[in-house]
Design a protein that fits this description.
- The complex is a heterodimer of chains A (312) and B (306).
- Chain A is an alpha/beta fold and 312 residues long.
- Chain A contains eleven helices and ten strands.
- Chain B has 306 residues and is α/β, with parallel strands linked by helices.
- In chain B, helix 9 links the parallel strand 5 and strand 6.
- The chains are: A alpha/beta (312), B alpha/beta (306).
- The structure holds guanosine-5'-triphosphate (2 copies) and magnesium ion (2 copies).
- One magnesium ion binds next to helix 5 of chain A.
Chain lengths: 312, 306
């Protein structure tokens, strides 16, 4: 799509008019790569602003100027301002003689439970014992799913994982609280709380999630989102954060989404745009990338690879 | 209503045309741009959007147009027909036959809602008096059989599956054979989630399909899916004989346009939509009356032979 830049004339100041068709093409490319429309538009506008009035000498400069500006803005977006270092924080919690708690949340079917299991495996590999709290007390088979994972994970690292469950129909917030107390008692390093999938506009379910988070004050709240998601990514994250903020009592510091797990990254080829949409909305880092269905399929985000896939 | 926001925006764009005194190419372009933006923001695949735009423009060749033609009506009609194409591939949909075994196999990406939707569909036919059953041919996902079993038990639907047999092809074949023998009419086979990038998973899907020889293959899509849908849907359609599409999770804010790409590339109609996690959050889908409603056919009625 960079052939579109041929329309620009060299040796002059770039104007909004010059850039309009080029930026239009650029936006189209971002959308083709599955960036949601709103962030795609915003990114193009910021690039336009940055390049407006810039003196361009030769034709080839134009190409590289624009490409660099986009690359820069995407890279900046994906590069966390704040690093989430779970292993360091687990060690810290341990020194305070308490378990480190992570809550997983997100809409239905995105991979919360599976990636919770992968993260358990990763913590086990790093020598930590994990208690899984079966906080999805709604979806059929949710408890058995985690029981199966616990069994498999213990086969890989004996006695490293325990499951806390109360079957179905119970209050997830109370369940998580009980799980944390047990982890404290048994000196288990980390508690991972699974939750039921919920649609962001389902009021009662969103309220229940904020209750769980308010009551248990996890060290980390991870939003799990799939790389397949399109424009809906924006609404999901806005509303999850909004629900968490709305139900904060006055004077209390709101506990919002601290980071994301980007799942099913193996299913999207070069359409990696959801990574952009999600970080654009939250300003929070993608802490893990899920790229398959086995315990080893967990990675860190490779920022330059994502940016290259988008600009390709 | 489902996809309602998209409908409203398209209606507005077309409505603006109605206010313009003369319609020229510029007017048409502005309208098309709005329609296309609405489609893109609903995740319709960008190539399909471009196609729609080109088709409408081709149809509306202003130079060739004879005087006296009612351009406004023609534009509305063309846009409507192109939209209908997105939702309705124009092939007749699968209809199960009473008194015979109808084997229906569910396929789709991981987590799209297959297992949940299987039960919904079984329940739907059971309520209508069909002899209905479920088979769990997912031996991969942790807890998959428990999930189907709990769903089926709650809805009192006979089911088949195994905790020990690891080969989904064997389970599927055994289950179908057993239920056929017992004169079941709607035999639904649930399979594991899979994606085109993992060839072995597609091979497995083909083997299950060959083993049970389904009368219909249902491709289940999540309404929130974006631009990746088209390539996945195409790959599923090229591997097994997809005949229907079900869009799930339309109770969310999602506009469901991404999932519509599945209709276009598999040439299969949407037959049901899922609108919640509960067993009766399930609706029959009729593309034509849907587009009619979507576009507020009060204004356009009579434009198209329905
Ligand atoms: N290809 C691929 N599949 C994944 C990945 N992560 C999860 N899955 C699959 O996605 C499906 C859904 O995963 P779950 O972990 O059950 O999702 P969930 O968010 O817990 O679902 P609910 O609890 O029902 O809302 C399963 O088939 C997983 O194997 C991934 O990174 N890549
Ligand atoms: N809100 C809502 N949730 C749904 C709908 N359909 C399915 N779900 C939820 O989506 C999640 C995944 O559904 P499953 O039926 O397990 O999906 P699947 O395709 O069988 O998943 P795999 O077998 O892992 O590939 C579950 O939490 C379901 O409750 C729907 O129409 N609306
Ligand atoms: Mg789960
Ligand atoms: Mg399933």
């Amino acid at each position: 799509w960079f052939s579109a830049f041929k329309g620009l004339v060299g040796n002059k100041k770039l104007t909004a008019d010059d850039m309009a068709p080029v930026l239009e093409k650029m936006k189209e490319n971002l959308i083709l790569k599955n960036v949601a429309a709103e962030p795609a538009d915003q990114i193009c506008q910021s690039v336009a602003k940055k390049l407006d009035g810039k003196v361009i000498s030769t034709f080839s400069r134009v190409n590289s100027e624009v490409k660099e500006a986009v690359r820069e803005s995407l890279t900046q977006l994906l590069t966390p301002r704040r690093r989430v270092d779970i292993l360091r924080d687990v060690a810290h919690a341990k020194s305070e003689d308490r378990p480190y708690v992570i809550v997983f949340c997100g809409v239905n079917g995105v991979g919360k439970s599976t990636n919770l299991a992968k993260i358990t495996f990763w913590l086990n590999e790093n020598g930590h014992k994990v208690l899984i709290a079966a906080g999805d007390t709604f979806r059929a088979g949710a408890v058995e799913q985690l029981r199966t994972h616990t069994k498999h994970l213990n086969a890989l690292h004996p006695n490293s994982v325990q499951l806390y469950e109360q079957g179905y129909g119970k209050d997830a917030a109370e369940l998580a609280k009980a799980a944390i107390a047990i982890a404290q008692e048994r000196k288990i390093d980390v508690v991972l709380v699974d939750t039921a999938g919920r649609m962001q506009d389902n009021e009662p379910l969103m309220r229940a999630l904020s209750k769980l988070i308010r009551m248990n004050k996890p060290d980390l709240t991870l939003f799990v989102g799939e790389a397949l998601v399109g424009n809906e990514a924006v609404d999901q994250l806005v509303r999850f954060n909004q629900a968490l903020a709305d139900h904060t009592s006055p004077g209390e510091k709101p506990l919002l989404i601290d980071g994301m797990v980007l799942t099913k990254f193996d299913t999207i080829d070069d359409k990696v745009g959801a990574a952009i949409s999600m970080t654009y909305i939250t300003g929070q880092p993608i802490v893990f990338v899920g790229c398959g269905q086995t315990y080893k399929d967990l990675r860190n985000l490779n920022v330059s690879a994502v940016v290259n896939a988008i600009l390709k | 209503m489902v996809l309602a926001d998209l409908g409203r925006r398209i209606r507005n764009a077309i409505g603006k045309l109605g206010q313009a005194t003369i319609i020229n190419e510029e007017e048409l372009d502005a309208m098309l741009k709005e329609v296309c933006t609405a489609l893109i923001e609903s995740d319709v695949h960008i190539r399909l959007v471009a196609q729609l735009k080109n088709n409408v423009k081709k149809e509306m060749n202003f130079d060739d147009m004879i005087g006296g033609v009612n351009k406004r009506r023609l534009i509305q009609k063309t846009v409507f027909q192109e939209l209908l194409k997105l939702l309705d591939p124009g092939v007749s949909q699968f209809v199960p036959q009473k008194g015979k075994p109808n084997v229906i196999m569910f396929v789709g990406l991981q987590g799209s809602g297959k297992t949940t939707t299987c039960t919904k569909m079984a329940y739907y036919y059971q309520k209508k008096g069909w002899k209905t059953c479920l088979i769990c041919a997912d031996t991969f996902r942790a807890g998959a059989f428990d999930q189907l079993k709990q769903n089926a038990t709650k809805a009192r639907i006979p089911f088949y599956g195994s905790y020990s047999e690891m080969d989904p092809v064997v389970i599927a074949a055994e289950g179908v054979e057993k239920f056929k023998k017992d004169n079941f009419e709607i035999i639904i086979v649930d399979t594991s989630g899979r994606h085109k990038q993992e060839a072995s998973l597609f091979e497995e899907m083909l083997q299950v399909s060959n083993a049970v020889n389904p009368n219909n293959v249902v491709f289940v899509m999540d309404a929130s899916i974006g631009q990746a849908c088209e390539a996945q849907a195409r790959a599923f359609g090229e591997t097994v004989d997809v005949g229907s599409v079900i869009i799930t999770k339309l109770d969310s804010h999602a506009k469901g346009g991404g999932a519509l790409s599945a209709v276009a590339v598999t040439k299969s109609p949407v037959i049901f939509i899922g609108t919640g996690e509960h067993i009766d959050d399930f609706e029959v889908f009729k593309p034509k009356s849907f587009v009619q409603k979507l576009l507020g056919m009060g204004d356009i009625a009579g434009l198209v032979d329905m």
